[in-house]
Amino acid sequence: MNVFMRELKSNYKGLIWWSIAIMITVVSGMAKFEGYGTAGSANNITALLAGFPKPVMAIFGMTGLDLTKLIGYFGVLYLYILIMVAIHAGLAGATIIAKEERDKTSEFLYPKPISRMKVLTAKLAAAATNILVIFGVSVASSIWIVGYYNQGYGLNSQVMALMWGVLLVQLLSFAFGAFFAGLFKNPKLPAVAVATVVVVSYLVSVSVDLSANLDFLKYLTPFKYFSAEKILAAGHPDPFYVVLSIVLSGALIGLTYFFYQNRDLNV
Amino acid sequence: MNIYWQELRNYRRSTIIWIIALSFMVFGFMSIYRSFALDVTSAKKLLEAYPPAVLAALNLKVEIFFTIYGFFAYLLTFVWLAGAIQAMNLGVSVLSKEVAGKTADFLLTKPITRVRMLTEKFAAVFTLVVITNIFFVATALFSAVVFSKDSFDLGLLALMAATLFFVQLVFLALGFVFGAVIPKIKTVIAVSLPTAFIFFIISAFGGVLKVPNINYFTPFKYFDPIYIYQHSAYEPKYLFVLFGVVAICIATSYVFYMKKDIEAAS
User: Fold this and answer.
1) Is residue B266 situated within a structural domain?
2) A59 or A173, greater pLDDT
3) What percent of chain A shows pLDDT beyond 90?
4) In this complex, is the C-beta atom of A21 within 8 Å of any C-beta atom belonging to chain B?
5) What is the predicted pLDDT for the residue at B86?
6) What global pTM score does this model have?
7) Cβ-defined contact of B187 to A52 (cutoff 8 Å)
8) CB contact under 8 A, A36 and B209
9) Which structural domain, as residue segments, surrounds residue A97?
10) With helix as H, strand as E and coil as C, how does B211-263 read?
């Protein structure tokens, strides 16, 4: 428990900053809905461009979401919430393990009468707690802001459907971060690696919209697994990708234990 | 000049990786242009059916977005994002790594002034950004030539590609001031990535909002492709703001770092 409590304490400042950043993203992103909803020309362009090839729509910033509807507009914002939480979760998973070697404190921590497995479990649990807090902040601010503009909470089930996408993206990103930290000896590499995974996944999800030839790439990026269009159309995240994400995350966490148990720590 | 060369050496590998990544990005995206151009042809046919009044309203957007310039401009947004992360990484780490790596007291006890040290370090990361941009602009022009069937104005495309340099300059200076002011930064990417993305998100949503002033708050909005297309130049007011922001950041870094209490390794 000591390791767990210590990690919570050492992360709480960063957690507050992240919570504020998420809240600001959600609230200020939605604040612009009014500007968009009232701009009549926007509706005309949407109508005008309907029926255009998908890549052309993508260039014009149309994604198959109805931007004149509150939930469609929130769907656009949702992608950016996904990116933010993915960055947070990935870095949380990576740094919580790698920091001992980075700060050269592993010689202090690991001779303590507690197994490496226990340390790792406590650390992962602490990171998971942080991630759940961020999830809570995302859910609360999203439900509040959508409810505020909708003047009621009738859209809650749709918002929550999107939020399960947020949680699964967090889980995947966290698992990747932990996995890299278990794998790499250089303590700076895990954070860079998971950051690269997040940014590349985002860029891949953008390029999928641009060309029918790249459609197969959608299997590689979580931002497409849980895209707003799909979740809003179905009313829930695609079960296939839910299972895929959970299995993949479980495997990555398992591998984290495997590699970290057997690894020679940098001192 | 020792510090300057030392820093160039330090970042050699990561800069090469960034150059390869950016080149791959622009080449990869431009390779889609062929199929996009086909889609555009069918879209143009659809457009012909619309009344002229509607077309006039859309005209400029359509004119640029259906050309290679428009396609390239779309790609540029994402190149800016990647480039911002690179520049911010450089700016943040070049100062903060001495404290994080516990080498600050080694460096600062050398017989050189702090001003000189800061100048050499900034010159080094600035050089790296310039080198990155030379490669990026070259690859961009090369890919455009390879993948475009129609002829186009190379100079105009180069002007658009070179915006990367200015965007990177802002984030480099911003990172530099972060590195100078924040006492200890342990994970550079944890600072640079969220910062770059927050400005990116502002630019994504600022476009929707019809308030022009929002554009001053994010470097991702300083270069409007439509303006560059029309005038073959950058918008002077944004360039002015850009250089102002850069100057303020660098000046703040110097003033602050001169008096900064540097944590010694224990």
Assistant:
1) no
2) A173
3) 58
4) yes
5) 97
6) 0.90
7) no
8) yes
9) 2-262
10) CHHHHHHCHHHCCCHHHHHHHCCCCHHHHHHHHHHHHHHHHHHHHHHHHCCCC
